[in-house]
Amino acid sequence: ELFYFVTKKSRIYAGRGVSQTPNQLRGGKEIFMNEYINNLIGLRVIKIYRYLDMLCINFGNTKRKCALHIQSPWKILDTNRRKVVVAYLDEFTELCELKENQRAVTVFDKKIREQQSIIENLQVIACNINCVGDLQINFSNSYILRVFINTSENEECWRLLMDSDEKHYVVKGKEILFE
Fold it and tell me: In sequence order, what DSSP letters do the residues of 59-123 get, joined into one string?
């Protein structure tokens, strides 16, 4: 059973159909977007990597684990040094010519390898999602991850997988839902 959401001023309302309005859902379960995403606060980055064109970040601590899969434009900023550490297009920029049966080494791979000890120890200190699904995660050490919704269609942009939930929090260009 899918739950669809209707957004209203950074709130999400869970219901059984997109035609329902927030008023029709008062008897149902109301979920604030930021409350769900705030489950990341306090977790550390365990691993960051790419799978084809998808950025994957695993978070966790001794009690919880979750993963964020991003398929839309994103960037990681170092606000102290006022620079982009790594970004979406870096996943596609190859560093050298490929030999047969060799995996492409990209700018992303190089930068993540250089920053791995820093990034893979960052702790989430704040999260925010706006009414269209753009995401910002603030980390310790003044790093910020920004994810941008880049479609008005029903393409998946990012999803949050919590180890305690069977359903995933999925953000698409047209809707935000659990599936």
Answer: EE-SS-EEEEEE-S-EEEEETTTTEEEEEGGGGT-BSSPPPTT-PPPBHHHHHHHHHHHHHTT-B
